[in-house]
Predict the structure.
Amino acid sequence: MMWFFIILGLLILVSSGDFLVRGSVALANIFKISPYIIAATFVAFGTSAPELFVSGIASYSGHPAAAIGNILGSNFANVFLALGMTALILSISTPKNKFPLEIKVLLFSSIIFILILYNVSLIRWWMGLLLLVSLITYIIYLIKYDTRKDSEEIIEENLSLSKSIFIFLSGLIGVSLGANLLIEGSIDLAHYFGIRETVIGLGVLAFGTSLPEVATSIIAAIKKENNIAIGNIVGSNIFNILGIGGVTILISGNDFLNINNIITIYDIIPFLLSTIILVYFYKFNANINRLYGIIFVIFYLIWIFYIFLN
């Protein structure tokens, strides 16, 4: 039954994630927001909704290690799997601004999150609320003040407001259902094989919940929408840290203290690498070509095999 729940949950997450992205993009276009901003906010947060529900449910169920593992693994998968597979199709160029706001936020939030994981005894529920407030502030500032909003063409999406809302809500309900099935099956799987819940979060949960990012960025690459492909990844990683991390701390309460001896340096390394790589490509305005794509995907597969074998 646990395998049935995992497979069904993944299928529902992927299909519902597509609905959520379509609805998000349509709503964003109604309000005339640029493609990059759409990708960094509406699309990114839409594709991260599975991670939000999975980590939220895991935290509420008393499994914060799985929730944290899901965050760490999802950021890793977004860069090394989603961005890597996208680069195999299309060489991706970063925006001309060498160190834009979103990269600064990603770097700062990654550092804060790592400090949290190594000082869990000092964490209180209100710190999760603070992360969420930081995310909201970032979104408002990016949409209102980002200079790219007037320099990019708007993606046309011929959907009415009512239809856009319906698609968005359908996706939201779907990812909630898929997350429930996935978390139940994955936790049972961890107990059955004696695997750390963090590893399940880093592997099965992170891979499953990152599939919407993979699909979205690949589709964007095929359509030669470079801004959507890269903006989706950066925005999703920010949302994972500030949004999902905030929710996990807020919901877990005292249970969050139990991850102190569960999260290891080997769980942190791929998460940190994913941020460093994005900072590097943005800072030096380098193209992410097919060679980088091959390296990223191979490294992702090697790391997944490593964590499961250990």
Summary: The radius of gyration is 18 Å.
